Amino acid sequence: MGNWKMTEYSIEKLSNDIKNNKITVPKYQRGAVWQKSQKDKLIDSMNKGFPFGSILLYENDNRRQIIDGLQRSKTIIEFIKNPARFFNDENLDEDKINKIIDYFNIVGSRSEIKSKLIDIIKAWIVNEHHTMQDVQRMQYGDLVDEIIKVWPTANDNKDEIKKLIKSIFSKFQDVCANISNMQIPALIYEGDESLLPEIFERINSQGAKLTKQQIYAATWAQDLVKLENTKFDEIINNNRDRYENMLDEDMELEDYNPTELTRKKEVNIFELVFGFGKMISKKYPYLFTYDENDKTKVESIGFNLINACLVQRSANMRKLNINLKNIIGLETHSIEEFLSRIIEAIEYVDKRLGAGTKFKSNKRSTSKIYPLHTELQIVSIIATVFINRHASFELNNKGEVKNLVIDTSMFNKQWRDMKDTFDKNILKIYAMDILGQKWKGSGDKKLDNIIIENYYYNRNVSWEEFEQVLDVYYNTINNERNEQKQVAQPKEPEKLILNLIYSSIFSATDQNDETKYDIEHLAPKNLMKEKILKYSNEFRLPISSIANLCLLPEYDNRVKKDKTIYNDDYYLSKIKNIKEIEEKYTFTIRSDLDWLDENLNEEQFKTAYFNFLNNRYQKMKQKIRENLFKETLYNG
Fold first, then answer.
1. Cα 6 vs. chain centroid, distance in angstroms?
2. pTM (2 decimals)?
3. CA distances to 82, 240, 250, 343, 350 from 409, in Å
4. What is the rounded CA–CA span in Å between residue 529 and residue 321?
5. First vs last C-alpha separation in the chain
6. Residues 6 or more apart whose Cβ sits within 8 Å of residue 44
7. How far is CA 509 from the centre of its chain?
8. Of the candidates 344, 627, 353, which has an alpha carbon nearest to the alpha carbon of residue 362?
């Protein structure tokens, strides 16, 4: 058990204790994540005398940890170190600013003059005043001279302007003095240190201040895992990067030593799952979303994937640390073997889905890669492979998992039985789910059903079933996209369909060369918009229909611009063989686009466009069938 007492901290003492490491930060904190607007609001509340909350500290051996109130403490210290950074428009007296402008005695846009004057004042205080002492001792003459350089007509009123400037900044100096002398309420908790994670969770579960993954950082901090295999060094590095980026030199993390972390290679379960998620996200960008610019962001992929591979429902995520400990064990060999087998499942799925995920329409060296699927969809596929390879369990009459055993030393017989079916059908099911938006929404229940009932990806898909999903998608898009001035950018389903079409048409050399490809409109979108605008204001067409899209090499696309491939003489002079372009990229002939040059009324134009779409869509479907259903196409 524990007890607590109420006390107060002066701003100066809080700042000094943190600076001297008498107050530290536990590793499970989020770090400094407040936005500027949140910081400004806190300082404004403090200055106005509004309640702004207390801080909660844990005391042990004359050292204290910040359990709650890190963001407030961090903001207050920032303010004390450099208050000028918090100077904003609210600190300016508008009446006094207007009086200064009156002294300029010039004609012009008053709003522009006012804006420029404010910019000069704000730049002066931020650039010339870096400490609390600078603010309290500020000299106004330099600022007045700077203002007069811009508006020389104000020189005769220099003294009056200086008085007004002094009055403006006197108010800000009072704010600084007020906050510097303020006392901060603090609760000091003394008691069993093992209870801190639960205290942290209870505080932060009220009001959804933290994501559930961030709360796990506290509640899963007790058990340690040692990683010896160098292939998991990245897990260590990801945690080191997180901690290094959480705070600056003002604060120290409790029990964090980068040298010790690298040497011992010991992490708690949260750190293990966090680091693993970062590692696989970076290595497999076509499967998982990866943000290289945010080292502290706690991604959900590691949590979702490991939980699913443990054959646990999404609702059991909170107990992932316990389940990992009980089912796999925390010995080095057991954990490393478990993670290695998950990686093997990831690589297996990555290869099987490559034709749909990695092709040229989703690959640009200068742009960020975004997976075509949702996170839980890909988790369900990878977990299916892992579970069928390594897990055995039973379900009771309530659908609960019983007698679960995970054996990573060998493949199960059930995997050998289903492997061929999985390999032949996984890309088809993957594509149908994306086209049919099967994973729209949270997807938790669908994931639970797939990993526990274990039939979803172990089935044969016929061309008729796939074609029906494709047709529904095609017709829905054509009906929903009523475009005139604005044309939708290609979305995940369009990119996927193009990948499925072109993946077998392009040679291995095409796939691996440096040529960049653009998704292009065969009936160019600007030309289509120009044509449509000549008709009634209500006239709309699905310009971005999948049947109007193709891949073209980036250079060729830029040459032809808004002309069709048949109308750009320069483009035609550059290519060696128009037939090769038609067969490899467009699946058209010249007459397919003749209607764009004809003088048609609105109804005729609409009919011509839909005829073009429908004819080309049939060719695209045939390409997909040839690529995905070779066995049924040639056997019957």
1. 40
2. 0.74
3. 58, 31, 48, 14, 22
4. 56
5. 74
6. 90
7. 32
8. 353
Whether 305 contacts 378, CB under 8 Å: no
Q: What is the pLDDT of residues 89-101, one digit of tens each?
A: 778 888 888 899 8
- What is the distance between the alpha carbons of residues 599 and 597, in angstroms, rounded to a whole number? 7
E strand segments, 136-250: 183-191, 224-226
Beta bridge partners of 3: 190
Structure-token pair, residue 138: 């500020």
310: amino acid identity, one letter: L
Cα-based torsion angle of the residue sequence 249, 252, 256, 258 in order, rounded to the nearest 10 degrees = 10
- Sheet strands side by side (includes 2-10): 2-10, 183-191, 55-60, 63-68, 23-24
Residue among 614, 620, 612 at smallest CA distance from 585? 620
Domains in the chain (CATH in brackets) are 2-86+180-194 (3.90.1530), 89-174 (no CATH), 211-461 (no CATH), 465-634 (no CATH)
Q: Are β-strands 266-268 and 224-226 bridged in parallel, bridged antiparallel, or unpaired?
A: antiparallel
Question: Is 191 strand, coil or helix?
Answer: strand
Res 256: pLDDT: 77
Q: What is the pLDDT of residues 165-204, one digit of tens each?
A: 888 888 888 888 888 888 888 888 887 766 766 676 676 6
Q: What are the phi and psi torsion angles at 330 (to 5°)?
A: -105, 10
Cβ partners under 8 Å of residue 261, min gap 6: 236, 239, 240, 267
Across the 636 residues of the chain, what is the mean pLDDT of every consecutive 10-residue run? Answer: 79 82 75 76 81 82 80 84 83 87 83 88 88 86 88 88 88 84 85 70 57 70 91 94 76 76 91 95 92 84 96 92 94 96 97 83 57 95 97 88 93 92 96 94 90 92 96 95 91 93 69 66 92 92 95 65 78 76 89 93 95 96 92 54
CB 118 within 8 A of CB 97: yes
* Per-residue pLDDT, 636: 46
* Whole-number Å distance between alpha carbons of 546 and 354: 21
Residue 431 corresponds to which amino acid? A
Amino acid at 443: G
